[in-house]
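Quick question, first post here. What does this chain look like in 3D?
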Amino acid sequence: MVTIERRPDGKAGRINHYFKTAEEIAAPEFQRMLRAANANHRDIYLTPNTLGEGATGRTKADIDEIRHVYLDVDVGGPEAVDRILKAEGMPNPHHVLETSPGKHQILWQVEGFSKEQAEQTLRNLAAAHGADPAVTDCSRVLRVPGFRNCKYPEQSHYVRDIHREPSSRVYRPQDFPRYPDVERPAVPASERTRFSGNGEISQSERDWAYALRQLEKGTDPAVIRANIEAYRQDKPNPRYYAERTVSRAQARFAANGTVRADSVAAGRQTETMER
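> Answer (accepted):
Ran it through. Tokens below.
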């Protein structure tokens, strides 16, 4: 599926979806239409995973087969990408897209993944390496090399593949490293514990204690923030919440040097301030 998003003056606008086969998308006439739309300040996106026959939407249920897993590296620039690619056990990707200056997407071609396996792998890799935890769903659309990124009207940038030695392999689930210390399974917001004021432990208190434990283990604070942000998508501003939780945990850890028995009580203060 191809998505075209109108961006007048760099702002998000009307979205059009085109449900077509790869052959139809690659046809010269359709390519001319895409390039004309892009020249008229429209962003072009493509689903890296295939949709089922007759699909009319882009939800997880519409995904037919997992063809790619990917990371969105929106902070750290080329150095962050380089660290990910050199991480122990990390398979060589097929594409590294520079989507705008300092921002990248890493793609691996895969087979044998269920939807749940793909999303679990994405969450785990994103949390371990500080990638964007929001880009971990299998129905994501990604930018396409050769088309201009119209999000920043003052900064013309064409998306390009900068990976010089792409992999010739197709990977399977067992080819990717796992990081059990940072992985936190997705839990529906309705199932997460809330602070009730009657002495029960809230999810925010658990997040606080988790941050302290990870700091004690020596985990990179950026990784902890990304992991909490990915887990707490029920928050109005997950990124701010994660940054605040980790910064307060860093201050407490710097003062004490270890996880103290009063961590939960301090976490309760954080929850109170949130509300």
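The first strand starts at residue 2 and ends at 6.
The longest helix spans residues 238-256.
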